[in-house]
Amino acid sequence: MRHSDDSTEARLLELQVLLEAILRHFPGVVVQVESTDLEKYEFLLVSEGCFDLLELSPEDLRTNAQTFCRLLLQPDGANLLAEMKQSGETLEAVNWEGRVRTALTGMTKWVNVRLTPYSIGGRVVWEGFMANITRNKEHEREVVESRKRLSELGSHLERTQSRERARLARALHDEIGGNLSAIKMSVAWLAARIPQKDTRTREKLQALEALVDDTAETIVRIGQDLRPGVLDLGLVAAIEWQADEFAKRMGVECATDLAREPLGLDRDAETALFSIFREMLTNVAKHAQASEVRIRLGRRRDEIELAVSDNGKGMMAVDRLKTSSFGMRGMEERATQLGGTLIVSGLEPRGTFVAVRVPQPTAPVGGTGA
Length: 370
What we know:
Order of helices and strands: HEEHHHHEEEHHHEHEEHHEE
CATH class of the largest domain: Alpha Beta
Mean pLDDT: 83
Structural class: alpha+beta
Strand order of the largest sheet: 2-1-5-4-3
CATH superfamily of the largest domain: PAS domain
Distance between the termini: 97 Å
Oligomer: single chain
């Protein structure tokens, strides 16, 4: 029997040494915390990683748990204590992220605390770990700042492109359109001076006049694609015009519910929303196989909503994830640049709802509404 006891003790000693090695090399702090009244806490176990993380010894925390609480930066510390109290009442796990200021150097670190509770003998005991996530938080901040810079750059490019499209549209209308009108007048002047019997020359002039007319129509169409002149009358008028054009071209019934009061949007925002609206209708034409489309523009609480719904075959969630869905991504990017969101959902029993919601301007801009 003595030999068996010695073997057991030796095995337990090996396991203890192994556990201590694991705790010593664990990239964080393994802890066990106890509470009897959900207001006062005591550290029963603290691993050696405590000094690297908090610049405190394990004994410091085991002696006085308030030592740790004093390192917590607010309001993060209050959030942790609230989570601990709720966890003690519900026995749900704690997963907290917050900032601490280290004991010796005063360095600010981000810490993740994960604890699993259980109740025993009227006490609540948590077991888990604390880990340094400062690098992760710095990376997240860099990603957020990078996305913000990209969004600002995208907004700038969108505004620049919008203004350049408007400039090109005006140039096409004023300069090229004016030149075509002058050419047509010259052709008419020549035609009036050609003898009636010179049928060949008159036919050439008639063909030339028809070519001028076709070119003028093409110029008008290109100008409308670059920036519809109706946008100068406001977003509501532009949407009404585009809806009528869509209904005529596609044979789809379009019902509109459009705000009649000024929405306070500036010209760049109206142009961006109109571009989103045209892409919405393009998607309906290409994919929906719909016979009815409903269009709404108006205020929705503290936002402005532009929504298009149809009774077509609907859109599956996987369709939005396709790498070739440039139209959808373009709408999302424009919505983000406006500080808003794009919502896409299916309708019952069939159909699709697409909406863009942007913040209501704090200071209305006169003259941009209907």
